[in-house]
């Protein structure tokens, strides 16, 4: 497919996300020949200096293709009150790209700054002929999300708005759909009769890594639970769509979110890692949560009664993105002891950049007696498809925006429904309990799944 040339306007161009994901992602797409001709205009309140200094600050000097790509990068300061210089720069860049050029505006800014920026895009004309990408969180609660939505609608058509939840861009998250719907094997057991629990577990070893002000204003519940973890839950739990179209996927996912029972406050645990308050930029009496674990239920015909356990946090004992589906016990115990008393069969999806899918099953241990142990079947995607290069989540999503494909983005309805679910917890949050760095969270969270515990940890 040929994409038209693009002027990419990136707000937050000197921020963490731009440096860690967006620029490296654009460069890799460029090197892979997947990008059309582009001009990238970084913007923000504070100029990082000359264009050369801006480019150097991105930290990709010496990387393959960087010099060629970087020559397409400039920085133009702007703010919510005045976008006139930026608008001029966009028009000039567009003229340089010739007929048919399009605009992609990427807002990697805090939720409080978004609405003002959107108005500026409308007033300055930058929004014309553009697609808009928003970074989560989309608002900070239902009310502000609605307000943002209303403001967006004044400037953009819904089909030109792309709300990024980058977990949906992960190859391995899309693999949940492939596994379920491209095989006849799993879907018949994908229900309450055969599944006794689901764990969606995203522990991270990193602390806040210079993102103190983001963490202090957002917290882990808004950053990860109301977005990434619930989106994964949506993919695991949704009903088969008739076709894999964006409309139908969004509709099915939304139906799942509508079926989620209001969260039981006694089954939500907030934690804060020991030493968080001493981090630079953190209030020394901060109660912000750097960890959340909770139990959710999807009250529909398929899932009624099956606990979905969600957990994520910073400064934990491992970095994983693990979805575990625990299957029902066999009708009878026919063998003696051993593994039969341990965890049941589990399907385990590792949603990392090197995705694997494992099925842990009970099997006979080799030797003279009929003893049952736990064995593992393993699918390694990189090994199965050695000639196919995976795309990192942001690469895939940036490309999808340019293609105009909204499948892997989140819809307003989904976002609003998730706030509806999350608002009561945020309005009256449980006290954050301290947990040791390198642990798997406070004791109460470890107990959440019952005696079986968490698979990871
Ligand atoms: C981001 C969160 O959206 O996702 C971060 O803001 C988190 O706090 C990150 O660390 C995890 O993403 P990934 O791609 O490393 O799984």
Textual characterization of the structure:
The chain is of the alpha/beta class. The strands form two sheets. The chain has a nine-stranded mixed β-sheet with strand order 14-13-12-11-7-10-9-8-15. The protein has a six-stranded parallel β-sheet with strand order 3-2-1-4-5-6, sandwiched between helices. Helix 1 packs across helix 11 and helix 6 packs antiparallel against helix 12. The longest helix is centred in the middle third of the chain and has 26 residues. It is globular. The two termini are 45 Å apart. The structure holds 6-O-phosphono-beta-D-glucopyranose. It catalyses: D-glucose 6-phosphate + NADP(+) = 6-phospho-D-glucono-1,5-lactone + NADPH + H(+). Pfam families: G6PD_C, G6PD_N. Pathway: Carbohydrate degradation; pentose phosphate pathway; D-ribulose 5-phosphate from D-glucose 6-phosphate (oxidative stage): step 1/3. This is Glucose-6-phosphate 1-dehydrogenase.
The strand line-up of the biggest sheet is 14-13-12-11-7-10-9-8-15
Summarize the amount of helix as a percent range: 25-40%
**Bound compounds:** 6-O-phosphono-beta-D-glucopyranose
Number of separate helices:
13
Indicate the overall shape.
globular
Number of strands: 15
Q: What's the story with the biggest beta sheet? A: 9 strands, mixed
Mean pLDDT: 95
Q: What would you call the structural class?
A: alpha/beta
How much of the sequence lies in strands comes to 15-25%
What string gives the helices and strands in order?
A: EHEHHEHEHEHEHEHHEEEEEEEHHHEH
What is the terminal separation in angstroms?
Answer: 45 Å
What ranges have pLDDT less than 50 throughout 5 or more consecutive residues? none
Rg (CA only): 23 Å
């Amino acid at each position: 497919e040929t994409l038209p040339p693009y002027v990419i306007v990136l707000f937050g161009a000197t921020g963490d996300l731009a440096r860690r994901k967006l620029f490296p992602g654009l460069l890799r797409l460029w090197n892979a020949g997947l990008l059309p001709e582009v001009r990238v205009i970084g913007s923000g309140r504070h100029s990082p200096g000359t264009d050369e200094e801006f480019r150097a600050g991105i930290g990709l000097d010496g990387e393959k293709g960087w010099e060629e790509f970087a020559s397409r990068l400039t920085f133009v300061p702007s703010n919510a009150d005045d976008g006139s210089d930026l608008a001029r720069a966009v028009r000039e860049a567009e003229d340089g790209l010739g007929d048919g050029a399009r605009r992609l505006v990427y807002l990697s800014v805090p939720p409080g700054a978004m609405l003002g920026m959107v108005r500026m895009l409308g007033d300055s004309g930058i929004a014309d002929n553009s697609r808009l990408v928003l970074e989560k969180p989309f608002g900070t609660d239902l009310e502000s999300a609605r307000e943002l939505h209303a403001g967006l609608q004044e400037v953009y058509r819904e089909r030109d708005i792309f709300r990024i939840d980058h977990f949906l861009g992960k190859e391995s998250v899309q693999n949940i759909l492939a596994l379920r719907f491209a095989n006849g094997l799993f879907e018949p057991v994908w229900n309450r009769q055969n599944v006794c629990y689901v764990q969606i577990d995203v522990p991270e070893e990193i602390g806040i890594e210079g993102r103190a002000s983001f963490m202090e204003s957002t917290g882990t519940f808004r950053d990860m639970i109301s977005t990434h973890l619930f989106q994964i839950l949506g993919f695991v739990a949704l009903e088969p769509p008739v076709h894999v179209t964006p409309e139908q996927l969004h509709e099915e996912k939304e139906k799942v979110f509508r079926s989620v029972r209001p969260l039981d406050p006694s089954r939500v645990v907030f934690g804060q890692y020991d030493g968080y308050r001493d981090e630079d930029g953190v209030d020394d009496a901060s109660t912000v949560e750097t960890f959340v674990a909770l139990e959710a239920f999807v009250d529909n015909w398929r899932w009624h009664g099956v606990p979905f356990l969600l957990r994520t946090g910073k400064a934990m004992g491992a970095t994983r993105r693990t979805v575990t589906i625990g299957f029902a016990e066999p009708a009878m115990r026919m063998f003696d002891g051993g593994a039969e008393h341990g965890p049941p069969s589990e399907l385990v999806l590792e949603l990392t950049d090197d995705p694997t899918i494992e099925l842990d099953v009970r099997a006979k241990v080799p030797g003279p007696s009929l003893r049952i142990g736990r064995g593992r079947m393993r699918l390694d995607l990189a090994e199965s498809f050695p000639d196919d290069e995976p795309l990192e989540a942001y690469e895939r999503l940036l490309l999808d925006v340019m293609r105009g494909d909204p499948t892997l983005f989140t819809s307003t309805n989904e976002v609003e429904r998730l706030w509806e679910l999350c608002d009561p917890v945020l309005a009256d949050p449980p006290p954050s309990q301290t947990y040791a760095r390198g642990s798997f969270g406070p004791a109460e969270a470890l107990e959440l799944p019952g005696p079986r515990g968490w698979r990871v940890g």
